[in-house]
């Protein structure tokens, strides 16, 4: 649990807070809802506010994309909100695919093709160090805040496991001998890049409420 011994008092502070999460990725929405559930922050989805538009994501950094998504929603709907942008950074590939993780193998969000391309690009490579990095952009009460979460690990030589999404079947976090897809959401959501960034967001929201 993220907030340790302070969880009960944080729960009391956060339980009336509502925030829109600017994502079209249902897996991310489910993860963030699971991570924040014990503390009672109500995560409102784009569907809940009837936003059906494709939110632009054309910046060249994770930070830039996270802010582009958060600003789009804030300007159009005038609501307090946050957005997350996440990339898989592979050391030997100079941090690629990074900000291009969703479209590494082409235009769509084709996780199978993305993993296949990455495994091919790392074929025979000994250095398989990688990290997931999440940046959260929060706009609340006219002010802006950024939070980051990182989990280090390595890329396996083949896909393993059925859980998670995206690159989870080929990412093994340090300290574990299973991929995120094998570890499952309960473990992933305690240690992941997104869990760490959302943990910082939650602690911050508690501090201002
Ligand atoms: P939104 O922009 O609508 O939030 P997205 O799917 O485009 O959703 P990102 O740009 O943040 O999300 O993520 C880029 C890609 O990185 C995503 O499509 C996945 O393939 C991968 N990814 C993100 N988070 C991941 C995670 O926790 N585990 C595995 N892969 C992940």
Give descriptors for this structure:
seven-stranded mixed β-sheet; binds inosine 5'-triphosphate; globular; 209 residues; 6 helices; disordered N terminus; alpha/beta; 7 strands
Explain the overall architecture.
The chain is α/β, with parallel strands linked by helices. The chain is built from six helices and seven strands; from the N terminus they run αβαβαββαβββαα. Helix 1 (7-14) packs across helix 6 (193-208), helix 2 (26-36) crosses helix 6 (193-208) and helix 5 (180-191) packs parallel to helix 6 (193-208). It has helices spanning 7-14, 26-36, 62-77, 111-121, 180-191, 193-208, and strands at 18-21, 42-44, 81-90, 96-98, 129-140, 143-155, 171-173. Strands 1, 2, 3, 4, 5, 6 and 7 form a seven-stranded mixed beta sheet that branches. 35% of the residues lie in helices and 23% in strands. Bound molecules: inosine 5'-triphosphate (ITT). Residues 23-25, 28, 57, 84-86, 101-102, 109, 111, 164-168, 192, 194 line the site of inosine 5'-triphosphate (ITT).
């Amino acid at each position: 649990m993220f907030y340790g011994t302070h969880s009960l008092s944080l729960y009391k502070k956060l339980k009336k807070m509502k925030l829109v999460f600017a994502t079209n990725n249902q897996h991310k929405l489910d993860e963030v809802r699971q991570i924040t559930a014990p503390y009672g922050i109500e995560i409102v989805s784009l569907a809940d506010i009837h936003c059906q538009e494709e939110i632009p994501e054309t910046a060249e950094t994770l930070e830039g994309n996270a802010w582009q998504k958060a600003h789009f929603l804030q300007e159009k709907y005038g609501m307090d909100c946050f957005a997350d942008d996440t990339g898989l950074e592979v050391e030997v590939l100079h941090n690629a695919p990074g900000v291009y993780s969703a479209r590494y193998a082409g235009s769509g969000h084709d996780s199978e093709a993305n993993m296949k391309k990455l495994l091919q690009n790392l074929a025979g490579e000994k250095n398989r160090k990688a990290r997931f990095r999440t940046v959260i952009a929060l706009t609340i009460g006219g002010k802006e805040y950024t939070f980051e979460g990182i989990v280090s690990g390595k890329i396996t030589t083949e896909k393993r496991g059925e859980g998670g999404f995206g690159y989870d079947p080929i990412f093994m976090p340090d300290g574990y001998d299973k991929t995120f897809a094998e570890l499952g959401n309960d473990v992933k959501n305690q240690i992941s890049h997104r869990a760490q960034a959302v943990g910082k967001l939650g602690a911050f929201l508690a501090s201002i409420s």
